[in-house]
Amino acid sequence: MAKSAEEVHPVKSFGWAARDDSGILSPFTFSRRATGAEDVRFKVLYCGICHTDLHQLKNEWGRSNYPLVPGHEIVGVVTEVGSKVQKFKIGDKVGVGCMVGACHSCDNCANDLENHCPKAIPAYNGTYHDGTTTYGGYSDHMVTNEHFVIHIPENMPLDAAAPLLCAGITTYSPLKYYELGKPGMHVGVVGLGGLGHVGVKFAKALGAKVTVISTSPNKKKEAIEHLGADSFLVSRDPDQMQAAMGTMDGILDTVFADHRLLPLLGLLKSHGKLIMLAAPNKPLDLPAFPLLMGRKLVGGSTIGGLKETQEMIDFAAKHNITADIEVISMDYVNTAMERLEKVDVKYRFVIDVANTLKAA
Ligand SMILES: NC(=O)c1ccc[n+]([C@@H]2O[C@H](COP(=O)([O-])OP(=O)(O)OC[C@H]3O[C@@H](n4cnc5c(N)ncnc54)[C@H](O)[C@@H]3O)[C@@H](O)[C@H]2O)c1
Ligand SMILES: [Zn+2]
Ligand SMILES: [Zn+2]
């Protein structure tokens, strides 16, 4: 006989969930599985708010299931480990990002690219191996197979480290793979939000020259003086764009709104690479001619494998890279979502889950 939900998931949990595509979050009681032999259970301390959470809350990608508990920039402290767990012990500071499962038998998994596994299981709004729905980090605790758990280095502030679990690896991985994050490279970053601002920090720390490309000059001073960018380009200024034509080796594009790719392709040198990281709802217009002249490439990238995620966190700790955050309480989350929609955050909201999530 099939097991009941209580048998599969006997441990009570609570968090905040959206019930429909209004995306409004409210308290939600549910349950999680008992700690399996390879599982790590941890108390959630902080969880970042990625723009993907907003896309999914509002079902903008058409595959949201409700109730939906978001959150995939999760940091916490280990409270229980399964009998076969090797890498973690009670009290360790840990993180979980976008993935909590994969097939472990495909070519991608064999090459530490679980992020490209066709059976990768997202941290929320996914279906786990046992057939149950996954719930994310806007909740009191998580239970995750140790393969998908990251060690957070001792010297890192846990709140500002949380966004690295998604925004960090999403920008670090393409900088490495497309060989843009190294001395001698000139990297453009389009969209100075959660992804963009850590992208600037990683590209700089990896040795590249960095130009922020933005529609308005508002963020110029901060991008250069605070985030460490070398220069700032206002994409609505034709003179500035003209002067910057053919100067960049690569561009990380983090803009989810409809936007033109042609001007960005013009900024690239021959063999330059335009890397799409955002997920616009509609296909973007990609003209072919500008790709032919100069053998330019358009590529994409999504998060990174677990091995590279640990490498990214260790690199960030060594180079003092964290996100610039605004810490909020759980009951502020709906206002935070409205502000995120209006691009009114510098540069990532992080929920202080442990101190502000109250049991229903
Ligand atoms: N590839 C991946 O693995 C991955 C991982 C995380 C997020 N994402 C996606 O990347 C995108 C960005 O995520 P984020 O968390 O950085 O979002 P964000 O809201 O923090 O930042 C987005 C930035 O885009 C800019 N922007 C918005 N509308 C614009 C417009 N019309 N023209 C120009 N710029 C505009 C804003 O200034 C903002 O700074 C989202 O679509 C998200 O789902 C992808
Ligand atoms: Zn994300
Ligand atoms: Zn796989």
TrEMBL record:
The keyword Metal-binding applies. One of its GO terms (molecular function) is zinc ion binding. Its cofactor is Zn(2+). PANTHER family: ALDEHYDE REDUCTASE (PTHR42683). InterPro entries: ADH-like_C (IPR013149), ADH-like_N (IPR013154), ADH_Zn_CS (IPR002328), CAD-like (IPR047109), ER (IPR020843), GroES-like_sf (IPR011032), NAD(P)-bd_dom_sf (IPR036291). Keywords: Metal-binding, Oxidoreductase, Zinc. Belongs to the zinc-containing alcohol dehydrogenase family. Residues 23-351 form the Enoyl reductase (ER) domain. This is Enoyl reductase (ER) domain-containing protein. GO terms for biological process: lignin biosynthetic process. It comes from the Eukaryota. Pfam families: ADH_N, ADH_zinc_N. Gene3D superfamilies: Medium-chain alcohol dehydrogenases, catalytic domain, NAD(P)-binding Rossmann-like Domain. It comes from Camellia sinensis.
